[in-house]
Description:
Oligomer: homodimer
Distance between the termini of chain A: 34 Å
Shape of chain A: elongated
Number of strands of chain A: 3
Amino acid sequence: MDIQLKRGMLDVCVLAAIKDGESYGYKIIKDMSPYITLSESTLYTILKRLENAQMLTVRSAEHGGRLRKYYQITNKGRERIEEFKSEWREVMVMYQFVSKEDSGYD
Amino acid sequence: MDIQLKRGMLDVCVLAAIKDGESYGYKIIKDMSPYITLSESTLYTILKRLENAQMLTVRSAEHGGRLRKYYQITNKGRERIEEFKSEWREVMVMYQFVSKEDSGYD
DNA sequence: ACACAATACTTCGTGATATGATGTATTACA
DNA sequence: TGTAATACATCATATCACGAAGTATTGTGT
């Protein structure tokens, strides 16, 4: 899939992946993999960005000797998801502009 | 609208704007403006990119003392539109991933 | 005659960001 | 003993939308 087309959607997808309960990096990738492919470097970049934007909070916890970072969505994060849904209408306008056939009229 | 969300769509929108007949920069912006807003700098960047990718051809012609560049879509450009439509399915998968409500199960 | 809007295209710098490559470290398993 | 899986981090790179600024002409209002 075209990288550019994913832009602006991945952030929100990651938020959606944790909206029903906290999760951690590796699990997020696994959970999303049937629907969306993203590399580890991409995910951790996004998580950091969302943390800076206060759309999620992080807590570190040990699990089986390994350190894990658990991510939890904030209200701001949920608002971002709603905002995205609103913007989606404009995206559909663009899609329809592309996919509409020539009517023959003008 | 979020800039990032437009990415990967604008190129195809411009191709769509000329798919029913050749046009020129200024007119393309006017034609698209009810649906999609894009600045001149963005458009001419895109036109140059599409030309390099051989998705459109250009001819210069004088019109009312002013120089105009007329852009015409190529087969490769039309193929790009079709390719985009295919990729759209994956975009919708991402959108549904974001917009789906928690089922309560799992 | 003068100012200003509209038409038409160009170039430059900037910020955002998805990704591959690479690295570190532990656990599980064959 | 080695390899895969788990888990997170950093860096450099390429792509790209946009504002700002510039050039030049035509049309219009006063």
